């Protein structure tokens, strides 16, 4: 649990301070972690980097992962390009942070294992959430002179620091200067990894001779993809290898370099690859597993790890090997022979059953790019996937290998939408990539129920206010799979579903309900459903038949009154007016809407993942809240009149709860999470400087049954619930 204190701001008068306890709704990882790195300086210490949810440190005493950037308010710094623990001092760790080429980048330095950070903005752009984020590691520390660091950038060549990352200079002698910043939504691989040979210098307590031999792999098009320096980076020689990108490189304690090659940046779209072994003098040989070639040579090797305790032991993992499935291969004789561990592996996901969300068993995983062998225990091996981190303590030469998710404390998901119904489970969520879940217990990983249809992204959810077991949802499929519907209806609180299918519409007729663009709404009694297709449709027989809604513009979301089954509301953005239906969505007509600003075009965000700008009170009929631009307005007469309801708060997102309204916004120059208990006249900040989560907020809602409870969905750090510390309700 995360405990925070509150800085109070108000529009008219200050309110009493409120302290909130913030806790992750448990899923158990859930997103892509490009790499995991063990500390060579202390047993039981490891770091994990994610592509949009920051970094984590494994706490061996508490047996859980500790998020290291919850106090960070800069969105871009949640995309971790590389991470490097000091090889001599277990308290020191460095990170390269930057989401993409268009956002800020920095080197983060910590002397207390990531509890606090010193931030050095840098001129070279990064791509922690771009293609190629599984390459690496780009950030390397000289084990013989640990204040000396190198960083391989994507777009601007190789860089060096001589003062523990405080300042950086470009290594102008490096043969690849960089391709420059790419066009929007494009990227480069650049200098994909830097590996420093510990045998080429001397330590003498950290102040000896710096290492002379440095390797650097390049993942940009060109004739050469691997370079070696024997004079500390002053001059560089090209090293021969396959006509593939040098994607991942690690060096063992003998100075032997192991390189995973790939035909593309990944994590998707890689067709083939190779594994090579290089002697310290530069002589290389192909050691790609023969059995992998014999099964089609599909995909590549983005996971490469060596064991310091067992020289000659190396492990690799495949990526994008879709036909045969990805696997882990291990050699104990310097790559002469390999053992495919996949066929003798077993996975127990009972503590994170969400991993079964696609309706199949727990396979070896996809997007495997992170792989590490514990430097203090060669049987302890971990690898990362697009959804979890697996680990074993029994990777031996023979016998079965049991893998379990190593994820306690990791919550790295993107939340698109959520609802807290008036009955049933306290929370129902819509996730990106993982579909969504019914959270009966907020502190346990949920089992998957969003099937029939299964959609990888859930974009909209609604519940019937008087019959909360009736849930409807719409979503989109991330993968190109056959499907008959993108909407579903549940009569048991989201535990089982039936498909909702609309008739073709338009000229020529088209199935508009297959792409997940259009939100679905259900009436208070669960009888009426409205879909905001280009020609809005209404059904009163569980979707067996449909008719056109009169007076509701196309692509306009209807919102049901939570207490009156015949009443719906909508915002006509084009005409700048509020619409009301009093005949169960058969027709809509404009109401006065006095008090609203002229023109409602700024009302809410746009796109299929946007939250509704119009919300209805869960406990009384005719009470509406509307966001127009950064302001809130409230109506208690069904939209006839509105009054300002946000004071001086500039609102980004808002949600309703029991006797309160919650918002993400800015007040008094402070961007944060806020609560009002007096219909928006005054606001109290309920997050704090230790709980910012990169400021990557997607959705917020109160709980209609628990006063003060709020649910907050982030873009990368998962889903949170917050409670006032003095709440009279037991914490879920």
UniProtKB/TrEMBL annotation:
Protein name, per record: Xyloglucanase
Superkingdom, natural source: Bacteria
Keyword Methyltransferase on entry: no
Keyword annotations of the record: Carbohydrate metabolism, Glycosidase, Hydrolase, Polysaccharide degradation, Signal
PANTHER family hit by this protein: OLIGOXYLOGLUCAN-REDUCING END-SPECIFIC XYLOGLUCANASE-RELATED, XYLOGLUCANASE (EUROFUNG)
Family: Belongs to the glycosyl hydrolase 74 family.
Keyword Metal-binding attached: no
Coiled-coil boundaries: none
InterPro entries tied to this protein: WD40/YVTN_repeat-like_dom_sf, Xyloglucanase_GH74
Organism listed in the record: Sphingomonas albertensis
């Amino acid at each position: 649990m995360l405990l925070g204190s509150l800085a109070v701001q108000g529009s008219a008068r200050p309110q009493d301070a409120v302290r909130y306890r913030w806790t992750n709704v448990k899923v158990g990882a859930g997103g892509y972690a490009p790499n995991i790195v063990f500390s060579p300086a202390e047993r039981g210490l490891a770091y994990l980097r994610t592509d949009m949810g920051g970094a984590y440190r494994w706490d061996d005493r508490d047996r859980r992962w500790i998020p290291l950037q919850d106090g960070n308010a800069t969105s871009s710094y949640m995309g971790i390009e590389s991470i490097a623990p000091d090889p001599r001092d277990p308290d020191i760790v460095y990170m390269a942070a930057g989401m993409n080429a268009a956002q800020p980048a920095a080197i983060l330095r910590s002397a207390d294992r990531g509890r606090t950070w010193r931030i050095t903005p840098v001129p070279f752009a990064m791509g922690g959430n771009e293609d190629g984020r599984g390459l690496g590691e780009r950030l390397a520390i000289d084990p013989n002179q640990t204040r000396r660091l190198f960083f391989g950038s994507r777009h601007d060549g190789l860089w060096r620091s001589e003062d523990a990352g405080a300042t950086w200079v470009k290594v102008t002698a490096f043969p690849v200067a960089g391709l420059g910043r790419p066009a929007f939504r494009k990227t480069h691989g650049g200098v994909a990894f830097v590996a420093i040979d510990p045998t080429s210098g001397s330590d003498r307590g950290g102040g000896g001779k710096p290492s002379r031999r440095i390797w650097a792999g390049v993942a940009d098009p060109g004739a050469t993809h691997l370079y070696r320096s024997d004079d500390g980076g002053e001059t560089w020689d090209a090293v021969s290898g396959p006509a593939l990108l040098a994607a991942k490189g690690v060096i063992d304690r003998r100075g032997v370099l192991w390189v995973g090659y790939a035909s593309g940046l990944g994590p998707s779209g890689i067709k083939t690859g190779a594994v090579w072994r290089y002697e310290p003098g530069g002589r290389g040989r192909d050691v790609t597993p023969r059995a992998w070639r014999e099964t089609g040579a599909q995909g590549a090797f983005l996971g490469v790890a060596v064991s310091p305790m067992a020289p000659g032991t190396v492990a690799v993992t495949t990526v994008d090997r879709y036909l045969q499935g990805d696997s882990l291969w291990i050699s104990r004789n310097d790559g002469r022979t390999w053992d495919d561990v996949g066929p003798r592996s077993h996975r127990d996901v009972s503590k994170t059953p969400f991993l079964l969300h696609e309706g199949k068993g727990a396979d070896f995983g996809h997007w495997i790019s992170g792989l590490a062998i514990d430097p203090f225990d060669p049987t302890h091996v971990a690898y990362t996937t697009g959804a979890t981190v697996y680990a074993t303590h029994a990777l031996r030469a023979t016998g079965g290998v049991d893998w379990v998710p190593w994820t306690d404390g990791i919550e790295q998901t993107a939340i698109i939408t959520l609802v807290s119904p008036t009955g049933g489970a306290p929370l129902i969520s819509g996730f990106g990539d993982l579909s969504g879940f019914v959270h009966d217990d907020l502190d346990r990983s949920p089992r998957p129920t969003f099937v029939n249809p299964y959609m990888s992204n859930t974009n909209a959810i609604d519940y019937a206010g008087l019959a909360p077991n009736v849930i409807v949802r719409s979503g989109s499929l991330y993968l190109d799979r056959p499907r008959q519907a993108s909407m579903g209806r549940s009569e048991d609180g989201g535990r089982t579903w039936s498909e909702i299918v609309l008739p073709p519409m338009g000229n020529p007729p088209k199935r508009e309900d297959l792409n997940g663009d259009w939100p679905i709404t259900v009436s208070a009694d669960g009888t009426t459903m409205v879909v905001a297709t280009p020609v809005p449709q209404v059904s009163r027989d569980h979707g067996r038949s449909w008719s056109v809604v009169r007076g509701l513009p196309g692509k306009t979301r209807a919102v049901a009154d939570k207490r009156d089954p015949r009443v719906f509301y909508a915002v006509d953005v084009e005409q700048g007016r509020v619409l009301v239906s009093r005949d169960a969505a058969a027709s809509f007509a404009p109401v006065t809407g006095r008090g609203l600003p002229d023109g409602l075009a700024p009302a809410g965000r746009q796109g299929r993942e946007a939250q509704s700008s119009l919300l209805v009170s869960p406990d009384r009929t005719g009470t509406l809240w509307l966001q127009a631009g950064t302001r809130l307005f409230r109506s208690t007469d069904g939209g006839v009149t509105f009054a300002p309801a946000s004071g001086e708060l500039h609102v980004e997102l808002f949600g309703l709860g029991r006797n309160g309204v919650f918002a993400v916004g800015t007040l008094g120059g402070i961007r944060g999470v806020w609560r009002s208990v007096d219909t928006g006249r005054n606001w109290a900040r309920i997050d704090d400087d230790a709980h910012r989560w990169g400021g990557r907020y997607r959705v917020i809602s109160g709980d209609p049954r628990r006063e003060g409870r709020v649910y907050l969905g982030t873009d990368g750090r998962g889903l949170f619930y917050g409670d006032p510390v003095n709440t009279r309700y037991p914490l879920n």
